[in-house]
Amino acid sequence: MAVYKSIFTALVFSVISSLSYANDDPLVGKWKTIDDRTGYSRADVEIKKKPDGTYEGVIVETRNIPGTDKMVICSNCPGHLKDKPFLGLPFIWGFKNDPDNPLSYVQGKVLDPIGGKIYKGKARLNASGKRLTIRGYVGVSVIGRSVTWIKY
């Protein structure tokens, strides 16, 4: 009986440690977006790592800027994203960890749901892993816009 108990205990600790290891990815989790023009938080995005090793973020909550109506549908979004609800909408996708810098992510796409455009994207975590700066750009990254998100 003691053998089974110790095997069970070892199995439980193994599962717990593997689950905690899976959550050690600093990019994975829930992020509060901050609008760089107004300073307000417009949405929460949950970033997950896909089986192919890329990262995708979907909108899980939206907020309106005081004095404006809450946007519910992505009426300006292009293609198959047009007129989709904001909740569940892919907001960033295709980001890959930069092999030369573990705090940087490259080759992504960023959707501007207000303007309806999709931009090339790159991102960088700060050293604590609590702030993510995402840059959307056209052509070269000099021609673009950066926003900072805060991790929950």
What does this structure look like?
- Residues 29-150 form the DUF2147 domain.
- It comes from Acinetobacter chengduensis.
- The chain is mostly beta strands.
- It has a single domain (26-151), classed as Beta Barrel (Lipocalin), CATH 2.40.128.520.
- Helices cover 14% and strands 43% of the residues.
- The protein contains 1 helix and 10 strands; from the N terminus they run αββββββββββ.
- The protein has one helix at 2-22, and strands at residues 29-33, 43-49, 55-62, 73-74, 84-85, 90-97, 104-112, 117-125, 131-137, 144-151.
- The chain has an 8-stranded antiparallel β-barrel with strand order 1-2-3-6-7-8-9-10.
- A hairpin with a 6-residue loop joins strand 6 and strand 7 (104-112).
- The protein is globular, with a radius of gyration of 19 Å.
- The termini are far apart.
Structurally, the number of domains stands at 1
The computed structural class is mainly beta
User: Architecture in CATH?
Assistant: Beta Barrel
Euclidean distance between termini CA atoms: 43 Å
| Envelope shape | globular
For this structure, what is the CATH class?
Mainly Beta
Oligomer: single chain
How do the helices and strands line up, and which of them pair or pack?
Blueprint lengths: L1 H21 L6 E5 L9 E7 L5 E8 L10 E2 L9 E2 L4 E8 L6 E9 L4 E9 L5 E7 L6 E8 L1
Antiparallel strand pairs: 1-2, 1-10, 2-3, 3-6, 4-5, 6-7, 7-8, 8-9, 9-10
